[in-house]
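Protein in question kept underneath.
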Amino acid sequence: MAARRKVKPKFDKKVIIEAFAEMAREKGIDRDLLQGILEETLSLLVRKKYGQEANFDIIVNMEKGDIEIYLTREVVDDPWDDAIQIDIEEVQKRTKEPYELGDEFIEEITLENIADNFGRRMITLAAQTLNQRIRDIEKDNVFNEYNNKVGEILVGEIYQVRPSGILVMHNKVEMRLPREEQIHNEKYKKNQTIRTVIKEVRRQQGSGTPDIILSRSADEFLARLFEIEIPEVYDGIIEIKGIARDPGERAKVAVSSYDERVDPVGACVGMKGIRIHSIVRELNNESIDVIEYSPDPRIYIARALSPAKVKDIILSPETRQATITIPDEQVPLAIGKNGQNVRLASKLTGYSITLIKEGGEDIELIEFREELGREMYDKIINLGIDTAREFLDADVLSLIEIEGMDKELLLELRQLMLTEFDEEENPEIRKKILLSHLAEETDEDVNDPPQPTSNE
């Protein structure tokens, strides 16, 4: 069998340059930067052949499609390092020009010459180095592009739905919408177009691509939707002064106008609510309260508690506390479902709000949610009990019937709430405390009400 003839690879400099130029266009990499990468890769090959001390120049002309490599060595009589020296007799064989000892001899190295002196492994290593540098640049470009867009709206396509979150593609870049950044009860499907805000871009350790975090629950997402749907907000005529959200359920947005002729609330709501309704639909029917901002904290807090009407407000600016008197019939509106209204008002204004009924001191039940526990709190709220006074006035037997409630827990919760009131000035409260203590000291079981006796 005839020996298989080895074919030397041909290195067309112009073809290589054109390939790099095309790569620069496809991957969005700056041509000058890509030129630098090519020079680094060629430098690796030259140093592998001639040594780390070699003195050489690489010239890459992307415009002309040309690559030139020049090696400079000292002319000596007896070279001891071929990387930096060359024998004078060897020089005289290569050129007719006169050279003396100590002169510099510059010769051009061709790509074919480099390839002839390297095995396939070295060429593969150079290619891997080149590809790795290109990938690093691509990752840096992705990071810089999206890091500059943090806080902006992004429209992508869902391509994978996971329990921990969904993966979104945008311009062939993978991004994450974690579960905690989603709107409650929203359903997502593969290939669905989704609108989010870019919340954060993180660099990954190692070779990972940047981790781009998206959000639909962030306040910034609602703010950007206002800019899209309301021209006055986009133009800066109306400013969003604050946002407080329970994503997917309810939000409060404070707005202010720089033009006296423009009503900030009316402009945001739109004729027949058309502007705000488009935002509500995008947010899975999240209810949005738009209020006008005021630099006066009393007015601001009163508006934030809308739709409830406020009777009186006592402020403590140093501690950021607000004690608010509410007419009895307005208490449910002020508190809201599961304390949502007062909680959002507090977040929006930055004041810790305590509600008091107009008929006397009272405390909303949400203030005791931590002591009650979320499950017990929800059960009590479902009975229509929204405040501490309503809990204290509630029928004991109906409270005992709550699953998880017993005599000891009931007395403990009542005592806890009673201590929050002023015992010295409220005889009703003192009486309740006395009855609580009396119940603790007797063996009477609240769970077993006294049975009627029969006369024999």
